[in-house]
Amino acid sequence: MCLPACWFEGILQKMIRKAVGMGLLDMFRKAPKKNAIDLLQQISKRAEDLTPEEQARSFVAIRRIDGALKSRDSRVIFGRRGTGKTHILSYMATAATSRGDFACLIDLRTLGSNNSIYSDFSLSPSTRATTLIRDLLSSIHDRILEIFTDPQSKLDDRRIPALLDRLQDCVRTVVVTETQETRGKLSQAEAARLQTGLEAKASLIGGNAKASMNTEITSGDSAEWETKITGKPRLSVNMGDAYTILNNISSVFPGRLLILLDEWSSLPEELQPYLADFIRRAILPIQNISMHIAAIEYRSRFRTDNANDRVGLELGSDIAADINLDDYFVYDVSPDVAVQFFGELLYKHLVAFAGDAGLAEDSAKAVIANIFSQDRVFAELVRASEGVARDFINILQLAAMRSDDSKITMNEVRTAAKDWFERDKQRNLDSRQNAQELLHWIRDEVIGEKKARAFLLNVSVSNQLIDFLFDERVLHIARRSYSAKDDPGVRYRVWKVDYGCYVDLINTVNNPTSFLSHGIIFSPDGDLTVPDDDYRAVRRAILDIAAFDKRASEAGQ
């Protein structure tokens, strides 16, 4: 029996519709959304490990500094390791691109690949700094070239290649081979003055330049003399040309150019003022360029004063320095602000790592409810992080590993905080015995005797060990300046001891029950409030660092 052709055509159409229908169903069938607790171990601890898209999606705007970051001002952004400096710069680069501006994000740890700025101490600091400046200019050159050659770039001005070639010529090799040969007779006193002048001239030339003088006594106090100055090739930077070329490059940009320097404090401290001086002279005067530098406060040296001049940047005058990430999220100062910020940080990071599948939880509140057994457990995690985002993520992931698939409890947060302190911070203290002794003494004086978690220190007191403990995130600044009303001429800085130093004392008789001395408390807006006997309460909270210095001195005798 023969079937009509229309029958086959009908069957074929049904098969096609079924296949197409299944394909459409598959197309619109989404993968199940991911749960927050399953993504905790995937959160990256370092911003440089994130893609630009992940950085943008996980960034949490800080209300108090967001406006400053959007301004055209050049600035230094301070913050210790892990506070979010790299994340801010990465976000600024992404935001600049999205609004039509251009960004050169440079990691200063990558400069000096030939090690001359670190290992060759036979070179003068100025010579090593010139190598550093050359590397910075080369990095700026490479970033602008990448922008220009990007197929999707809006930068298509044909003048760019010639200007980039001129930028490379700003750093050139100069051979110092100056020779002076003069014969004559002069007194020994005159010969000594000539020798001094030659040495000064060689020093002015720099590099490996050397001066030599040969004398031969002929009669009495007269001498015949011959001089010679020789030197090896050295680099020089023409700052005027660098300014002119960078200014010309920025003028052909259809938008603003941001130069973002990360890891400033990774540079040798003695070279930092020289690079800062180049920035002051060659980059900051350019109207269409904004410079942002991420640095660690006590590892940075932006200026040095010589006998007759200043080398470097003057913070606040040449460049703004109004953002310090160490000032914002200490729980004991502003608990509501800190909890809200870290809640958003956790939620946005989880959203970023959930990818296209999406996150099952639709808010920070829902994330906290599904991960932690109680809201106060999350608040304790925020307290333990002491305002440092990287510490927050590390403690969270350690606690999550202990809880397995269950919700994180208070005991797991405290145990994780202790583990993180011993694993990360205590290990760094082991290499500096006197700093560890100071920490033990503070723990005895503040936590042991006064049952407090913080102390006051006169702002005029400069102590390298205190700075070191702050840099290692063992001490934290709760308030940079406070003045007691009964002693208004004296200002104090409020220091807080790290959570890891006293977590094992919680639930014991030695638990620090107050923030400062009893009677002094922080108000919700972060200000100090004190009782009527104001100065007596303040004196009880002051740390007598001189007593430790005296004890250490006596122990060393």
Please explain how this structure is put together.
The chain is α/β, with parallel strands linked by helices. The chain folds into four domains: 63-155 and 239-327, Rossmann fold, CATH 3.40.50; 176-232, no CATH class; 335-427, no CATH class; 433-556, no CATH class. Helix content is 46%, strand content 17%. The protein contains 20 helices and 17 strands. The strands form six sheets. The protein has a five-stranded parallel β-sheet, sandwiched between helices. A three-stranded antiparallel β-sheet has the order 4-6-5, with helices on one face. The relative contact order is 0.10.
Features:
single chain; 557 residues; alpha/beta; Rossmann fold; five-stranded parallel β-sheet; three-stranded antiparallel β-sheet; 20 helices; 17 strands; 46% helix
The domain tally reads 4
Structural class: alpha/beta
Helical coverage, percent range: 40-55%
What is the number of strand segments? 17
- According to CATH, what is the class of the largest domain? Alpha Beta
